[in-house]
């Protein structure tokens, strides 16, 4: 094939004919990236502005130096979760091996659509999802499929739940005489509404359930909502419990919700996208008691297991349900009785081998490493919470159950109607003057500040800078 207009390192010659040019390009990119990452604490957690490179497609190949200059600017102007002061979202620096795993997965470019196109990765995904399902106690028949994010994982689980409840796998919802509805707490993730919309149920099919003072679903309110839905002629089919709410990091009472699901014969799904990582901590895993009774679980190792984005999964207590209620065969792909084609069982068809970087992270950190990271997050959480509770001008949104702290400034001298603006200004001051980024979510119609203690290099100095910055801000007003 004629490649006369292609740069010498445009592709890696499988016979090694351009090895020197490829290695030169790879070394330049890697060296430049490592220099930036190794000095990430010299850049702000968030850039003040971003320079966007030219989006035109050049007529001919640009020089390697010019491309590298633009690439350097892209990294410099991007969000900087490697900075120890980046503590505002469930994003953190990834494990080194997961970054390298991404490189390897991209290089071999296998397709998780079928076993034939990803023989090693397909089997590895089957084995590892079964093992993780076992960590949750889902039983000997459990398994799952990886996906690109928790929203897709929730969509997958709710699709299976809907199909099983109403037998609409082939004929659709037209023959269903009652409106299908599901239940989730009023602070559950918005991906549930998206899933309901995509499933033809409509966003209003997700019935919100009241929460207690600690942002956890109220079981009594749940039972009342279910009974009311039945009286109104609706058809309840699923309850979604959250193990790690996005804003406050709380866990719904899983055993009580499980009992209600059993009583009403409803599918029990647990969105443990964030909190699922607790299974790797002996000290904290009891917080997930009751998850073993789930019919399905969403889990995102890209969060608290530090795997580079994206890496999420939907797990099912009965893996055969995917064959019965979701599988769409691909006749153009060779089948395998031992390992089903992953693309036939998942929302996505073509999919990269995300399983590699998950496997590598587990191999490199081990259980001990994962447990230490989780336990350290709790230690720092306790330090911050104790200071907030003692502070006359700060209050917690709820009692934290994970490594999230949601709080706000409520000094007596600030009228209640001005507190949202005060906390917005506090967030900006922490970033601009102290290199601390905390997010500013809206929770119960008010502005709050949120700290997520994920970064392995966030320590006592960062926490002290956060607390001192808050005090300085409040004392200047």
From TrEMBL:
Please list where the region (Disordered) is annotated: 38-65
Q: Which GO terms describe its molecular function?
A: carboxy-lyase activity
| Cofactor(s) the record lists | pyridoxal 5'-phosphate
> Residues bearing N6-(pyridoxal phosphate)lysine?
303
Stretch forming the signal peptide: none
Q: What segments bear the compositional bias annotation Polar residues?
A: 51-61
In its keyword annotation, does this UniProt entry include Cell wall biogenesis/degradation? no
Question: Keywords in UniProt for this one?
Answer: Decarboxylase, Lyase, Pyridoxal phosphate
Q: Which Pfam families match?
A: Pyridoxal_deC (PF00282)
TM annotation in the entry: none
The entry assigns this protein to a family as follows:
Belongs to the group II decarboxylase family.
Designated name of the protein:
Pyridoxal phosphate-dependent decarboxylase family protein
Lineage of the organism: Archaea, Methanobacteriati, Methanobacteriota, Stenosarchaea group, Halobacteria
